[in-house]
Design brief:
single chain; alpha/beta; 6-stranded parallel beta sheet; 42% helix; binds zinc ion
Length: 228
């Protein structure tokens, strides 16, 4: 469960303590930046550093670039905040969970010039289509697919699934958004992950059991907390 912003961090950190199946990431979502005063960015990132140092999070995120949020949070600010997240992920040995909506050219540039965390980079709810898979994979990213792979009109997401090397493939619900078929339009739930696994397996012409095993193993590689 990734955070969207500082107001969620303390509550999220309580969840793994009550149930170890629940693991959390801490970060500042680019869509939240327009609501946060820019002068609070530095103190919030300092607090993020100390919370990550105290343990309890398995990743840094969400963070990233959001084109539609640029009028309220200019790209320069989004990039500065994203830079800070990447530095913290490196410092704390954690993977980075990256959001990218309608900002893929800027994200590709950023990835090319940034020292990325050794623990990995996940492009969550991947929306870059088949054309950008090679560049992202070449930069070491994992691609995580959500509900759209299950929608009847899906073409590009399925092509992107097929082009992604097996060991870089992940799935997620992105709940409560983007519910998979047949729940589309309703509130998404973690339990619907199985629908996304099935759609991913169908795209690859394999059984849901086999692809489920593969995806589980990929997730455990990235997030050691799930190995115990
Ligand atoms: Zn997102």
């Amino acid at each position: 469960m990734p955070a969207i912003g500082p107001g969620a961090w303390d509550a999220l950190l309580g969840l793994p303590r009550s149930d170890r199946r629940l693991q959390v990431a801490l970060g500042i979502h680019p869509q939240l930046l327009p609501e946060l005063p820019e002068e609070d960015d530095a103190p919030a990132l300092e607090r993020l550093d100390s919370l990550l140092g105290a343990g309890g999070a398995v990743a840094v995120g969400e963070c990233g670039l959001d084109g539609p949020s640029a009028p309220g949070a200019p790209m320069e600010r989004q990039l500065r905040v994203l830079d800070a997240h990447a530095r913290l992920a490196r410092k704390h040995g954690l993977p980075l969970l990256v959001h990218c909506q309608k900002a893929h050219a800027a994200l590709e540039e950023w990835l090319a010039r940034t020292q990325l965390p050794d623990a990995g980079v996940v492009l969550h709810s991947y929306s870059g289509g088949p054309g950008r898979v090679a560049a992202y994979v070449g930069r070491g990213c994992h691609l995580s697919f959500a509900g759209p792979v299950s929608w009847p009109e899906a073409r590009k997401p399925l092509e992107a699934v097929r082009l992604t090397p097996r060991e870089r493939l992940l799935v997620e619900t992105d709940a409560p958004d983007q519910a998979p078929a047949p729940h589309r339009g309703g509130r998404n739930e973690p339990a619907f992950l199985v629908r996304i696994v099935e759609a991913t397996a169908a795209a690859l012409g394999e059984s849901a059991e086999a692809i489920g095993m593969l995806l589980g193993e990929n997730a455990r590689q990235l997030f050691p907390a799930f190995r115990r």
